[in-house]
């Protein structure tokens, strides 16, 4: 049901997703009007010039979002494998949980009853007060043990330049300078303290989607974590 709880859902299919076409993605909708608009938007609205019956040309200038037929064919075949690929990631994550569950100062992914997790990323949260070290030192130690695909944080959207500088369209600060826009919008650091701390200090991700991990690979990752945790005082 993911992607279908609203009028339009979007899916990325670039190279490190569960299934991918190299680049590109897909949009799903059960609304014929939106589907027609999307088809126009992806291709400069060119089909509107030949009697398609479309009279509303707003927001249809200049876009080129075409996904090639070869990539689309790859995507169709990949969709057939999606369930098995996600299940493999779940098994990887379960095995990782078994290896890491007894390590101090580390919060494993929480999956509540009657819920599931696709594990695009295997997410961990570090309790630095208990560990008495930094995320950077832990990551460097894990890399030294051969662990790949480690993520130090993710993204705090409100701290991206477009929001910090309040310049998105043109050079005059639109939409923040629009006369009907609120004049007290702030994206100052500190407005999202939990997300900011996760990004800058405590979130550690393992990009298991980048790899086809075997049981042996998972064991080696688990051994690497255990070795680093046994030697935290030396980091």
Mind explaining what this structure looks like?
This protein is an alpha+beta fold and 235 residues long. 10% of the residues are buried. Helix content is 37%, strand content 9%. The mean pLDDT is 90. Strands 3-4-6-5 form a four-stranded antiparallel β-sheet. Helix 2 packs across helix 7 (215-230). The chain has a domain at 9-24 and 67-156 and 192-234: Aspartate Aminotransferase, domain 1, CATH 3.90.1150. It is built from seven helices and six strands. It has helices at residues 32-41, 69-100, 128-131, 135-144, 161-164, 193-202, 215-230, and strands at residues 9-12, 25-28, 106-107, 122-126, 150-152, 203-206.
Notable traits:
alpha+beta; Aspartate Aminotransferase, domain 1; two-stranded antiparallel ribbon; 7 helices; 6 strands; globular
Which descriptor suits the 3D outline?
globular
Sketch the major β-sheet: 4 strands, antiparallel
Number of helices: 7
Second CATH tier, the architecture of the domain at 9-24 and 67-156 and 192-234:
Alpha-Beta Complex
How much of the residues is beta strand, in percent? 5-15%
Low-confidence stretches: none
Sheet with the most strands: spatial strand order: 3-4-6-5
Fold blueprint:
Layout (H helix, E strand, L loop, with lengths): L8 E4 L12 E4 L3 H10 L27 H32 L5 E2 L14 E5 L1 H4 L3 H10 L5 E3 L8 H4 L28 H10 E4 L8 H16 L5
Antiparallel strand pairs: 1-2, 3-4, 4-6, 5-6
A few lines on this structure:
The chain is α+β, with helices and mostly antiparallel strands.
